[in-house]
Amino acid sequence: MATIPSSAAPQVRRGVEPLRAGQGTSFVWRKLHSLLGVVPIGAFLIEHLLSNFEALKGPMAYAEQVKFLNSLPLVRVLEWTFIFLPLLYHGVYGVYIWLRGKSNIVYYPWAGNWMYLVQRYAGLIAFVYIGYHVATQRFMGVNLPENPGAAFFKVQHELASPWIVAVYVIAMIAVCWHFAYGVWLFAAKWGITPGVTARKRFGYVCAAAGVLLAAMGIASIWAFVGPKYQNAPENVNVRDQRSEIRDQRTDSRDQHAVPLLDRASATAEVAALNEPINSRRFASVHAAAPSMHMQLAASAADATDLCSLISVL
Questions:
Q1: Domain residue ranges of the chain, discontinuous segments joined by +
Q2: CA distances (Å), 209 to each of 42, 184, 212, 257, in order?
Q3: pLDDT for 167 beyond 90
Q4: pLDDT at residue 117, rounded to an integer
Q5: The listed CATH number (1.20.120.450, 3.40.47.10, 3.20.20.70, 1.20.1300.10) that belongs to domain 26-238
Q6: What is the rounded CA–CA span in Å between residue 134 and residue 91?
């Protein structure tokens, strides 16, 4: 028996439509969160670790690095645009994702679930530590952008407590882990490593990079607490690089000017030495002039006699 479809519209319950790839604002915010974790935050992390690595060369090298970074054009605009604001968004939205997520390692104790859990806790530790580190080193105490010579002593003074050293070491490991695994997730989610083999190989690369960055960070911490620079001064005199360039150019011009003066004086001395010799030569030529005139006169007389003989013939 045929049935006639009902003309009444189906009732749809109110609710939120399931999120699909490319739809909804949550997808955009998550993509932005993932991207900012690599660029610019990841790039800044690498630069920051490389800059801190200069502490192994001593207070002067570290102060010069701080001076160089704060002398960049529009450094405050770059600082807020590419460091503070991306860090704030990545951290706050990361905590939001962490609170909404549910760990299922009790029911599914797989490696991926453990990695998910460690990544969330490492991110939380990194967020708290970065907030503390930025507040104490950038906005409290000595203003390092205006006094870069005090940078080494300020960090060294903070690391005088063993508890703070322990916090720094743990946070350094957590930050480097979070970044390394975050890069691996970024490559997987953005389609850079689409296959299982590619993800596995790239995982080894990310793990090695994370270990290397953590080792650099811990070595930098050791530079402040180790015995080599225990008596570091509170402030070192860091000269302006522009002044140094001007001084170098002035010294170079002076070095080139000295040989010119030497050559002029040497020429004068040679002329003075050659003056008696030239005088003697002129005297000898002057003394020999009468004999030369007599020879020329005799030659002229002989030529006249020869012409007369020819005319007679």
A1: 26-238
A2: 12, 11, 5, 52
A3: yes
A4: 87
A5: 1.20.1300.10
A6: 14
